[in-house]
Design a protein that fits this description.
Blueprint (H helix, E strand, L loop, with lengths): L10 H31 L3 E2 L8 H10 L10 H7 L5 E7 L4 E4 L9 H7 L3 E5 L2 E9 L5 E10 L3 E2 L4 H11 L1 H36 L14 H56 L6 H31 L8 E3 L1 H18 L3 E8 L7 E3 L1 H17 L6 E8 L4 E7 L6 H6 L9 H7 L5 H11 L4 E5 L5 E7 L8
Parallel strand pairs: 9-11
Antiparallel strand pairs: 1-7, 2-3, 2-6, 4-5, 5-6, 8-10, 11-12, 12-14, 13-14
Helix pairs in contact: 1-5, 1-6, 6-7, 7-8, 8-13, 9-10, 10-13
């Protein structure tokens, strides 16, 4: 058995049905009224097209008389066959200028309009029409025109005012019936429309008052149902957008608080130790110790400012990479010396392993300064959490289309919270160690953005049996697919 097909009860369909009913009912009642009127008063008026039917005979006479019609002396003849009570006329020359007639009002403005209106019916008012009859010379050349103005309406046939009044009232009955039935069906449709309109108006008022905690419940199979559903979707999207905006604002305030806190600590230390030196309470060898503390904390503050400046630049929509041709293997060999020196100071072993699989060209385009910053941030992160005697290793697999990096250490590894948040802005991991190390919480976030702008991705995971791994890849800038 096939499923039932439910037709959409659209208001358009309801309006059409209501309109048909209004017309049909009005027509039926009007026909009954006219039938009654025709039985008793059919001799009171001429039919509505009484004068229109005479236009053809009048036009025939005009054509037969050629351009004699344009002579004002023909006016008496003209008025002998043009009904004075029902048709007005005016005779025009070939330029549309008035020559004579019973109607002086300008119907045709110029020659161009005259030419285009020949043999046409021109509507000039309520039930009033103008028929433009051309006047041709005996050589069939155009000489002018006669404009016949008539109305399509019934005219009186009797002088009895009583009969005329009754007749006029009957003629108004169709309009009265249309009005009556229109009001009836309009009231019915108005009740159906009022419900969704009220719902939408209330919803709009709530949104105006910044209240999005409501739902629009209107389940009818019509156009307003679609509109209400669209309005409800808009409300949900607006609410989600506002929630995201509130979250961003909350993060912005949190970031400002983090920046203020991170700057406050080293600057407070600098200020305190500086005052101690200026007050003369610190003397001898202790002055050097105080200056070293001041220098160290000043460097921490400068590092944070530099990270913030880098962050501002790379988050700017106008930020662009600055590529230069470089052999990535040579670059890694030069960085190996720097990183090995840093690790040796902490008693950490350091190794670089490069697997070169390139076939086409050893020179590729990278923003080498940005790449260097990513590696510096990753190595600094590993050094920060790797103990003396442990190992940090860089593995690089070089291909023509992509360079794959792995920074592997045998340190303390990542906690579940670290893996979830390490690439978030201002995330510092071990809070007890971040303060003493001057860790700003921006390095890995900056690294993530730089890698993504190189068309790559970055991820963090734990090493087995212990330690951490940060993997990322970048594409030579000429090889990126836009």
């Amino acid at each position: 058995m096939g499923g039932l097909i439910v037709k959409e009860r659209t208001f358009k369909r309801k309006f059409i049905i209501a309109f048909i009913k209004i017309i049909v009912l009005s027509l039926i009642f009007s026909l009954v009224s006219f039938f009654i009127w025709a039985l008793t008063f059919n001799y009171v008026r001429y039919p509505a097209n009484y004068y229109e039917k005479q236009i053809g005979d009048i036009a025939k006479v005009i054509v037969e008389n050629h351009d004699d019609v344009l002579d004002k002396r023909f006016q008496k003849n003209m008025e002998s066959f043009v009904p004075k009570g029902g048709i007005s006329y005016q005779v025009l020359d070939e330029y549309g200028n008035f020559l004579y007639g019973t109607l002086e009002e300008k119907i045709i403005k110029n020659r161009e309009e005259l030419i285009t209106s020949i043999n046409s019916n021109k509507i000039i008012g309520n039930k009033q029409y103008a028929k433009i009859i051309p006047v041709l010379g005996r050589n069939s050349d155009f000489k002018g025109a006669v404009v016949l103005v008539y109305k399509i309406e019934s005219t009186k046939k009797t002088d009895s005012q009583i009969l005329l009044t009754l007749s006029n009232m009957v003629i108004l009955f169709p309009f009265a019936f249309i009005i009556i039935f229109t009001l009836i069906y309009a009231k019915k449709l108005s009740k159906e429309i009022n419900k969704p309109v009220t719902i939408l108006l209330n919803a709009a008022e709530m949104i105006k008052n910044q209240n999005l905690n409501f739902t629009i419940d209107y389940d009818e199979n019509n156009e307003f149902s679609k509109l209400c559903n669209a309005f409800e979707s808009m409300r949900k999207n607006l609410k989600e957008s506002l929630i995201r905006q509130w979250d961003l604002e909350e993060k912005r305030r949190e970031n400002i608080g983090n920046i203020a806190h991170d700057l406050k600590t080293p600057l407070t230390i600098v200020n305190t130790y500086t005052e101690a030196i200026l007050d003369g309470t610190v003397k001898g060898e202790r002055i050097r110790e105080y200056l070293e503390v001041i220098k160290r904390n000043n460097e921490r503050a400068l590092a944070l400012v530099m990270d913030l400046n880098t962050l501002h630049n790379i988050e700017n929509p106008d930020f662009i990479l600055h590529p230069m041709e470089v052999d990535i293997v040579d670059f890694l060999n030069s960085k190996e010396k720097d990183y090995k020196f840093l690790c040796q100071e902490r008693g950490i072993d350091f190794v670089v392993k490069v697997e070169d699989l390139r076939e086409k060209n050893f020179m590729s385009k990278f923003d080498i300064r940005s790449l260097e910053q990513v590696l510096d941030n990753c190595i600094s992160n590993s050094i920060r959490y790797t103990e003396k005697g442990e190992l940090i290793e860089i593995r690089a697999k070089c291909r023509d289309e992509v360079i794959e990096f792995s920074i592997i250490d045998t340190g303390k590894g990542f906690s579940d919270e670290d893996l979830k948040n390490i690439f978030n802005k201002f995330y510092k991991g071990d809070k007890s160690r971040s303060f003493s190390s001057g860790h700003s919480g921006l390095g890995m976030y900056i690294s993530k953005i730089i890698v993504e702008k190189h068309g790559g991705y970055i991820e963090a995971k734990n090493n087995v049996p212990k330690g951490a791994i940060i993997q990322f890849n970048i594409k030579p800038i000429g090889n990126q697919i836009s």
